[in-house]
Amino acid sequence: MKHINRLNRFILGAISIATVGVFTACEQEFYQDEQYRKEIYIVSGEDNIFQQEFSFGEDIVGYVSVYAGGTTPVEKEVAVELEIDATALQEYNKKRYGESYDQYAKELPESRYTVDGWSVKLFPSEDTPYTLFPIRVDVNGLEPEDNYFLPLRVASVSDYMISDSRRNVLLRIFVKNEYATTKKATYYTMNGTSLKVAKDTWKPLETDKGQPKYNAINSTKPVAPIAEQGIRILTGSTITSDRKELRKQGVAVTVHPEEEVDVDVIGSDGLPTGEKIKCQKVTLDKWYDVDGGITVLNIDDKPSYYNPMKKEFTLNYRYNYKSNDWYEMKEVMTPLDITNN
Question: Which one of 75, 151, 226, 266 is at 20 to 30 Å from 96 when CA atoms are compared?
């Protein structure tokens, strides 16, 4: 009997060892498969967002990267088909903004982008386990206050697997020019003067001892890019984030690099030295032509200009808004925070 019990214990022990060995081998095979398993995905960051700045122009190309994950390169050529996936943007808006519909990000209109084809290929290579998907984006006419996304997803692959978590990307479109960007708020410091004047004659309505009474103004001025050579500002120290008011009060400032203005060099005593420098002509106009909106006039004998060496605007203009009062403005704007990467 004792011999039989010892034999039974031996057999059970052998079975246990064999079972552990089988499970260990399966586990190693599983982790090996996991380690070398290749998944195709689109490179992105948090919330599957990839951000990119686009300049104004007719043929500005951006890229998203399609990547083959895994510790080794793909062994064969892989065709990857992409497509638009508006659902991803809808889910992002609901998650981030809930019922605040006015804050929802917008899908980039079809008229604002083109692609040569929706398929790209991955090739066996240790150096480049990715391929680039080019997109031509035209940002002309995009509103600087709106958030624009191009929602993309991997539709299919000819081999391997598609990543469940990184199948989609929300390509966020930022707009930039030489003077401002929407990627982050752009500010200029502004120092200047304001003078109340009579319509048509432009004579000062406020004087001090017979001299025009200029009121000093200064502010930290938000600036937005609206064209290749254009920015939008508000008059003086005015600040608003209301979109209707921005359209009513917004002033379009346009630089004309091909037209030069002779500008006096001012000495340390505050007087002209007799020297002149060449600067670029600037003109101002209303940003939007809407009922009840601002009226803006340039001053012929006091041209506005942009100094590209100092990246500084000097603006001379007259405006009228919501009353019969006209104001003559001089504003000197110097960039405080500007990104042009």
Answer: 226
Q: Which domain holds residue 95?
A: 39-176
Q: How far apart are CA 307 and CA 68, in angstroms?
A: 48
| CATH value at residue 259 | 2.40.128
What number of other Cβ atoms are within 10 A of residue 101's Cβ? 8
Instruction: Supply the pLDDT for residue 15.
Output: 43
Q: Residues in the chain, how many?
A: 341
Between CA 172 and CA 108 the distance in angstroms is 9
Residues 276 and 243 in one domain: yes
pLDDT along the chain (341 residues), means of 10: 50 45 45 63 95 90 92 88 96 95 95 95 86 96 95 96 95 97 95 96 91 94 97 96 95 97 86 90 97 96 95 97 93 77 43
pTM comes to 0.83
Cα–Cα distances in angstroms (integers) from residue 245 to residues 241, 276, 321, in the given order: 8, 39, 11
Task: Report pLDDT for 194.
Answer: 97
Residues 225 and 330 placed together within one structural domain of the fold = yes
Same-domain pairing of 131 and 259? no
Report yes or no: 282 and 315 within 8 Å, Cβ to Cβ.
yes
End-to-end, the C-alpha distance of the chain in Å comes to 86
CB 92 within 8 A of CB 263: no
Q: How far is 288 from 243, CA to CA, in rounded Å? A: 11
